[in-house]
């Protein structure tokens, strides 16, 4: 008989996962992924089941990291919510397995993992691609991802000014009221992004909200939303003028409306830059198009379980 799986709720997962531990693990696994060595990492593009009646999707995200002994899958639902809805748009559960025997070792909340690992990967992109003397950070959106991006970006970097825009101004004010530091609420995307060095787009938009004509030359955009092949956050001008980096080329080709519909060329994966096989073109306008990967959830879940095991 195997032991029952460990069950970890959102609070426990949040407590056991620090950006300090997460960032180097993500850099390492994304570098390994980009070597495409299937004896080391297997991670197919996620399977997505549309839930058309309810404007939602179910995604299944398996990954096997042989050398680290991690077998994992995340199951994630994401919905386009009506404006004003208080329901979360993204919900997830992560399962860790014993790779040798196949039983489940842990079942944990995936919302905290999704929030933190996505923001940590965006911070890695900013570390590589943002202008050398970046002073102004702008966040578009005021939901879960906006919050985790605020946390890690203000922790890892020192910005002189942080701005936020949300389609409902009162939500931007609520976002700011929950934070410690000063943040300027902007009333339009144009106002928010003008002159910004780093722009995070973390919205549920399915049409472009960020236009290239507003983006300062040399700025870095970490684009987190628009994770369906017919959804957009960024316009064609921005996509065609920027140097475009992605987390996974296969994922981007299958799922990113910003890439597929604009016809933009992908320059490199983040892992390829980490490995030194492609350069970080920091002096140019850059877009990091994030879609999310099972390997990111897998190393995050392993960190959570290691920390929890060390305490019990
Ligand atoms: N790249 C990844 O790995 C990854 C991971 C998780 C979530 N996401 C995506 O990131 C986005 C944000 O996720 P979240 O969990 O923060 O969601 P959330 O529901 O907590 O927040 C969504 C934000 O987007 C805004 N928004 C919704 N529709 C909009 C529209 N049409 N125009 C402008 N703003 C709009 C909302 O007002 C809110 O501020 C979603 O698209 C989600 O699918 C990506
Ligand atoms: O990688 C993820 O977890 C997310 C879930 C929501 C849609 C986009 N990708």
Describe this structure as you would to a colleague.
With 312 residues, the protein is an alpha/beta fold. It folds into two domains: 6-113 and 295-311, ornithine cyclodeaminase, domain 1 (2-Layer Sandwich); 114-292, NAD(P)-binding Rossmann-like Domain (Rossmann fold, 3-Layer(aba) Sandwich), CATH 3.40.50. Helix content is 35%, strand content 24%. The chain has eleven helices and 15 strands. The chain has an eight-stranded parallel sheet with strand order 10-9-8-11-12-15-13-14. (2S)-piperidine-2-carboxylic acid is lined by residues 59, 76, 78, 90, 114, 227, 291-292. (2S)-piperidine-2-carboxylic acid (YCP) binds next to β5.
Instruction: Find the structural class using helix and strand composition.
Output: alpha/beta
Shape: globular
Spatial sequence of strands, sheet with the most strands: 10-9-8-11-12-15-13-14
Q: What does the radius of gyration come to?
A: 19 Å
Mean pLDDT across every amino acid position: 97
User: Could you tell me the number of beta strands?
Assistant: 15
Tell me roughly what share of residues is in helical segments. Answer: 25-40%
CATH superfamily of the largest domain: NAD(P)-binding Rossmann-like Domain
- Largest sheet: number of strands, sense, barrel closure: 8 strands, parallel
Query: H/E order of the elements?
Result: EHHEEEEEEHEHEHEHEEHEHHEHEH
What's the helix count? Answer: 11
- The assigned CATH architecture of the largest domain is 3-Layer(aba) Sandwich
